[in-house]
Amino acid sequence: MNRTADRLMPLAAEGRLYPSVIVSGGTADDRRRLAFELGRALLCERAPEERPCGECRHCRRIDPDRYASEARAKAPSEKRRGKAGDAGDVGVRQSHPDVLLLERPPGRRDILVDMVRPVVRSAQMSPYEARGQVFVIAEANTLNVNAADVLLKTLEEPVGGTPRHFLLLAASAQELLPTLRSRSLTVYLRGERAAVDDERTAELVAHWRRQPDGDGFALWVSALADRLVQVGGKELDDVRDRQSWTRIATAVTEVAGALDDRGDRAAALALANDLLDAHRLRERYIQPRRIIEGLAARRLRPDRPETGFESSVNVLMGPP
Ligand SMILES: [Zn+2]
């Protein structure tokens, strides 16, 4: 497990995990394993400090390998019509009755609205055995617009006092619809290529904490941008290089994790999300450094008048 997991597991064990979490970065297997570990911590029947125990009746069934070998459910409507083959494959797997894994059926490009319905139906019912419910959506980036809309309504309508957790897995959070992103906590697992070394993260955190008021701010943002450009590496010379921006966003997320103030943390996470989108800027004549300055300025000091670099980024990306 890595530091992202270290931060999330206690929250899950204590029942304080955000209801919707986007797990991004790492490999598909990393994301899935973390989701199931979180599922265990959320539903394990032992005392919070012992969760997940790995041994109780819940933990044993919340196992990614068990889920992988579990047959997918068929859509009820298809069964009624007696269709053969996997035409009605809804991509739902279930080994624990309160933990549902939804994944894109093989051969399909998207997760369609019919495939999301079993999730919505379950979420409207009480848990069978555990104290809450967990819904894992693998490749959440393949939810089509209608499917994402239906899921979104479910996220927005909590039923009673039952804890329900949605874990949306995707290589990159920016591939998810903005509406889903805005209602979810996004976490990044460090992949091989997205690694940011600890020393550099510590240096960034130290710089962040020295954020000045008033006139020193523009200089401070420039120095921050310099450091983040270094994190991005040589590849950042091409503004469209997604990996570089992911590395930078990961670094900023790490910084957010180290900040004590809630407002600071929220601003840093918002900046990290902006940075993930930065590769979409097609205007290659703008230096990456200027883009970072603009994004940082508008996220970190929304109360101040716009600076030059800020307004150029606002023109390109729209208001924050
Ligand atoms: Zn357990």
Can you give keywords for this protein?
binds zinc ion; single chain; 320 residues; alpha/beta; 6 strands; 2 domains; Rossmann fold
Helix count? 14
Give the percentage of residues in beta strands. Answer: 5-15%
What's the Cα radius of gyration?
21 Å
Small-molecule components bound: zinc ion
Low-confidence runs of at least 5 consecutive residues:
75-87
Q: Please state the second-level CATH architecture of the largest domain.
A: 3-Layer(aba) Sandwich
> Tell me, what's the shape?
globular
Instruction: Report the count of strand segments.
Output: 6
Return the CATH topology of the largest domain.
Rossmann fold
Total count of domains: 2
| Pattern of helices and strands | HEHHHHEEHEHEHEHHHHHH
Q: What's the multimeric state?
A: single chain
Distance between the termini: 34 Å
Under CATH at level 1, the class of the largest domain stands as Alpha Beta
Structural class: alpha/beta
Tell me the strand order in the biggest sheet.
2-3-4-5-1-6
Find the CATH superfamily of the largest domain: P-loop containing nucleotide triphosphate hydrolases
Q: Give average pLDDT, whole number.
A: 82
How is the biggest beta sheet arranged?
Answer: 6 strands, mixed
